[in-house]
Write a structure and sequence with these properties.
66% of the residues lie in helices and 10% in strands. It is of the alpha+beta class and 346 residues long. Strands 1, 2, 3, 4 and 5 form a five-stranded antiparallel beta sheet that branches. Strand 2 and strand 3 form a beta hairpin. The longest helix has 37 residues.
């Protein structure tokens, strides 16, 4: 689908639109650096304990008490000096309440590198003889309702995240960096080095905007976030390649001989704009439905995956249309200037 007679000059608007992206990224970076604000890192990366509370069949048939039970449990956890990192319902009947507790006790961080500190942290949760967290949760639930017998045997806890997750994150970042270098080489061979460099800058923009918006809206970052980034990297580079494929075709047209790089860029964007819009809308619609359904059902893990994907899709569509081809023009101009300066110096 081609959008004909569109007079919008994408190249000229680059200087107006690019600062918008830079502003969003800058705000995100500033928030990341502010203590106690920063990125909302979940226990998958920050480390902590996952406490699973199985309420049994009673909750499945009495959905109306779920919110009150959650409030009772959360109040006990906070009263004992623990910090809640994430919450969700799981199980076939959504009757298991899972709470992610961060490596923090009474406002002080637990030394995640110390096995002894981790052991003590877990003991404070599981110790029933000295009134550990499990015992106090069971007591609070039984005080709230006498209609079913609840014991601390229905509560399990285990250490999650920490060093293992951080290694996973480092490996994911390394793998993404290697993939970007390979993509640069591929695009440079298939098109030109200027196209490859412009595509990588646009791709980096998409990831940074995605990170910034995730920080601004305080969406929890867990291991699913890695999958979201990889998904956006694949989507964004595909959308950008479509633009540069058209740039190559337009450059060979007899009607465009003698045209400037800016004119070629504008025509290429206009020729592919319809496809870009349709692809983004159809993909976004699916992900938005997924995000809404997950929010309604309380499936936080999928919701934390869907929302960053939405940010990335919007950023990818924006960069492929408004940034990639204009960047190609500027890189070509910079290359021409460098060649001229070398000739003069020679």
């Amino acid at each position: 689908m081609k959008i004909k007679n569109l007079k919008f000059d994408f190249f000229k608007r680059f200087k107006i639109l690019a600062p918008i992206s830079l502003a969003i990224i800058l705000i995100g970076v500033i928030l990341m650096l502010i203590p106690k604000v920063g990125m909302n890192v979940g226990i998958d990366f920050a480390g902590g304990a996952n406490v699973s509370i199985d309420f049994g069949d009673y909750v499945s048939t009495h959905q109306e008490i779920k919110d009150d039970l959650v409030e009772e449990v959360n109040n006990v956890i906070k009263a004992e000096g623990f910090e809640i990192g994430s919450v969700r319902w799981s199980g076939a009947d959504e009757n298991i309440y899972e709470v992610g507790i961060k490596y923090s006790l009474n406002g002080e961080k637990v030394d995640v590198k110390s096995e002894e500190a981790q052991k003590e942290f877990l003991e404070k949760i599981e110790n029933t003889e000295d009134g550990g967290l499990k015992a106090k949760i069971a007591k609070a639930v039984n005080e709230y309702t006498t209609e079913f017998e609840f014991t601390d045997d229905q509560i399990s806890a285990n250490i999650v995240g920490g060093e293992t997750s951080r290694k996973l994150l480092k490996n994911a970042i390394l793998a993404t960096a290697i993939a970007i270098v390979i993509m640069l080489i591929y695009i440079a061979i298939r098109f030109t080095f200027a196209s490859g460099l412009a595509a990588i800058i646009a791709l980096t923009h998409d990831v940074l905007v995605m990170l910034a918006l995730t920080t601004i809206f305080q969406i929890q970052v867990n291991t699913t976030f890695i999958a979201a980034i990889i998904t956006i990297v694949g989507y964004s580079i595909n959308a950008t390649i479509v633009i540069f494929d058209r740039v190559r075709e337009v450059s060979k047209l007899d009607s465009m001989k003698g045209s400037s790089d800016a004119e070629i860029a504008n025509k290429s964007i206009k020729d592919t704009l319809g496809r870009s819009i349709l692809t983004t809308i159809t993909t976004l619609a699916t992900i938005i439905v997924l995000a809404v359904v997950c929010k309604v059902l309380g499936i936080s893990t999928m919701s934390e995956f869907a929302l960053p994907i939405i940010f990335g899709l919007i950023a990818g569509a924006y960069s492929s249309v408004f940034l990639s081809a204009p960047l190609w023009v500027y890189i070509r101009r910079l290359g021409a200037k460098l060649k001229k300066s070398k000739k003069k110096s020679a």
